[in-house]
Amino acid sequence: MGLQSSLFRGDPTLEACAVSDPAHIMLGAVGDHVSKIQTALIRLDSATIDPGELAAKRYGPSTAAAVLAYKKNPRRNIINRSYQTQADNIVGRMTIAALDRELVGNQSRPLAKDLAVLDKPLTEGLIRNALKALNDIEKDIRILESGASLSLGTPRWDALQKHFHLQFQISSSLGRALTKDDLTFIKRNYQEAANVLNNSAFSFDNGPPVKPGSAASGSFDQKKIFFSPLYKDFDTPDGKQIGPNSRAAIVIHESIHLVDNLSGDDTKTHISEFDPRYETMSADNARHNPSSYATFAWHVTRGHDQSRFGLGPARGM
Ligand SMILES: [Zn+2]
User: Fold this and answer.
1) What is the CA angle 175-132-274, rounded to 5?
2) Are 172 and 295 part of one and the same domain?
3) Residue-number span of the structural domain to which 192 is assigned
4) How many domains does the structure of the chain reveal?
5) What SS3 state is found at 172?
6) 314, pLDDT greater than 60
7) Residues 225/234, Cβ–Cβ less than 8 Å
8) Residues 129, 91: one domain?
9) Ligand 1: distance of its center to the CA of 224 in Å?
């Protein structure tokens, strides 16, 4: 009986590996079969594999290290005791069988693009809440400009200050005075992010992780979000979990990359909500920061800001 998982089944090189010792796969190999092994390691073990090796479909040092870690995992402990006492970094008959068996057990759970589609209602709701908060801020301004009094101690104004560093009429160390153009600009970005979700049949695609550990990456040029096998529920090395709430934040973040071509500058506009610089970035840069959009939406949805969702040291479900 050949390989069973949808990822491996029918691949001639992998099928050969499953039945023939000399057909084992090792350091230096290149091709689609290597890419499938890398995908399996990421899917099953959240393995960190060098982006260059992923792009080249090459069994390089980081792929070999991920294979070794997979085999050494105490719940597997894959050693061919007929000729060795320790696990090695080669994919042979035992390893391909174990990977295949685990993939079969795993494949009924959606991940990557399929899971992002399931996360759409939550994500769309967050964007709707953000737009409603911005419309309510516009109403607040009209009331205040008419001379009536109104408390600004509401989550929407708190969120506007925290994530976009904008506040009513005054400029201070916490942010600058909000303008009509700010509101128009931020609302348009949210509306276009909503269009990205509406258009998910085209705009959601699968792809390898662009950076180690990255669950998704949005491309302004290609107008697509590429979801990696890491887009799933997973435990991170610091023990925190990524779940639906964090994934929805990730989708908003990536959608902004598709609609705002200034959103990817790592020194100015692309500042993680978990980075200390997030608290001090200028309002002009925050308008383009994808993390500001994701975190503002969660802030107005929950009415508070802690702890934040997304990919970072403070991430939660
Ligand atoms: Zn980003």
Assistant:
1) 45
2) yes
3) 116-302
4) 2
5) strand
6) no
7) no
8) no
9) 13
Lookup result for tokens 């071509």: 261
Residue 200 reports pLDDT greater than 90: yes
Instruction: Return the closest-CA partner of residue 5 out of 81, 120, 101.
Output: 101
129 and 79 in a common domain: no
Residues 190 and 138 placed together within one structural domain of the fold: yes
Calculate mean pLDDT across residues 30-52: 90
185-194 pLDDT per residue, tens: 999 999 999 9
CA-based torsion, 244, 291, 197, 52: positive or negative: negative
Out of 159-163, 183-187, 214-218, 263-267, which region has the weakest mean confidence (pLDDT)? 214-218
Question: What separation in Å is there between the alpha carbon of 235 and the centre of ligand 1?
Answer: 20
Determine the distance separating the centroid of ligand 1 and the alpha carbon of 160, expressed in angstroms: 20
Task: Output the CA 217–ligand 1 centroid distance in Å.
Answer: 7
pTM to 2 decimal places = 0.75
Digit-coded pLDDT (tens) for 72-111: 988 888 988 888 888 899 999 999 999 999 998 876 778 8
Q: What angle do CA 273, 266, 52 make, to 5 degrees?
A: 110
Record the tokens describing residue 239, joined without a space. 């023990």
* Pairing between β-strand 234-235 and β-strand 166-167 as defined by DSSP bridges: unpaired
Nearest one of 209, 257, 256, 211 to 231, comparing CA atoms: 209
Task: Measure the CA–CA gap between 83 and 307, rounded to whole angstroms.
Answer: 51
Whether 69 and 200 map to the same domain: the answer is: no
